[in-house]
Design brief:
By secondary structure, the protein is of the alpha/beta class. It is built from 10 helices and 13 strands. Strand 8, helix 3 and strand 9 form a beta-alpha-beta unit. Helix 1 packs across helix 8. The model has no long low-confidence stretch (mean pLDDT 90).
Length: 300
């Protein structure tokens, strides 16, 4: 069965001090779909793109990475201006539309349904995610229920105040099996809690597995019964765009082939899961832009 990814695709306009702007395909869910396709997973991507040059570029880029794109191109393609600091970190300014063609989705059985980022919060397309989740968590007859994963990838300038966004986030988090977010996301959502309490809070919402990335400090991967801390790989960082998305790709790639229930993973298994995700993310940050690894990179 295939993996279904839902969310925005856009053009990153990357501004680096002392260099000309460069244009690159982006959007966190698009990066996840692309990364899964590059690892030879069977992946479909429900998204919203324009019928302009940028939209054609995005579609070609995704299709070259073995992603089956579900979209009805129209209007202008969304963009994100990413301003890179000297340390490789990025700040964003967005011009967005999120209104995917819901008629393109089917209720075919999936091994994984992944969604996230701006698309989880921005109307009118957020309603499409709600509909897909309702279908994915319903009866599948002889087919198993898909693994459902969520990466909120919080963008306060787009999704509004914490008071408005937190109820939506928690509503979605209660419906998923795997929840991945950064410590920056967690600190914005739960500023009064430390990391341990943040992970506990997220698990209490109902996710079977929570992964919190912490940049150069590594990551925490946890279930209700086990927890592991993972160190980051030491590489020369070109920029951080796509690092968290790559971590998510690795989790999905490993977990959708996992025979044991996610909630039953031991601390050692969680550590191995996080270590593989960290290694994959290290490849991405060593390259410019969101140039996620291919399967061949894992064999070198």
């Amino acid at each position: 069965m295939s993996i279904l990814v839902i969310g925005e695709a856009l053009i990153d306009i990357v501004s680096t001090p002392g260099s000309p702007d460069r244009y690159a395909p982006g959007g966190a869910p698009a990066n996840v779909a692309l990364g899964l396709g590059r690892l030879d997973d069977d992946v479909e991507f429900l998204t919203d793109v324009g019928d302009d040059f940028h939209g054609g570029f995005l579609l070609a880029h995704l299709q070259e990475s073995q992603v089956a794109v579900l979209a009805s191109p129209r209007g202008a393609t969304s963009t994100a201006l990413a301003r890179l600091a000297d340390d490789g970190s990025a700040e964003y300014e967005f011009h967005l539309r999120w209104d995917p063609d819901s008629s393109l989705r089917t209720d075919a059985p999936r091994s994984v349904v992944h969604f996230g980022s701006i698309a989880a919060f921005l109307s009118p397309g957020s309603a499409v995610i709600d509909d897909v989740l309702a279908s994915a968590t319903g009866a599948f007859g002889t087919h198993p229920r898909p693994l459902i994963s969520f990466d909120p990838n919080i963008r306060p300038s787009i999704i509004g105040s914490r008071e408005d966004a937190l109820p939506r986030f928690e509503k979605l988090a209660r419906r998923v099996d795997v929840l991945k977010l950064s410590n920056v996301d967690a600190n914005w959502l739960y500023p009064d809690l430390d990391e341990t309490a943040q992970v506990d809070r997220l698990l209490s919402l109902g996710a079977n597995l929570v992964a919190m990335t912490r940049g150069g400090e590594g990551a925490i991967v946890a279930t209700a019964s086990a927890r592991a801390s993972v160190t980051s790989r030491k590489v020369e960082v070109k920029d951080t765009i796509g690092a968290g998305d790559t971590f998510m790709v690795s989790l999905i790639h490993d977990l959708h082939a996992q025979e044991n229930a996610v909630s039953d993973l031991s601390a050692a298994e969680l550590a191995a899961l996080g270590d593989r995700a960290s290694a994959l993310a290290a490849i991405t940050v060593s390259r410019e832009g969101a140039d996620l690894p291919w399967a061949v990179d894992l064999r070198n």
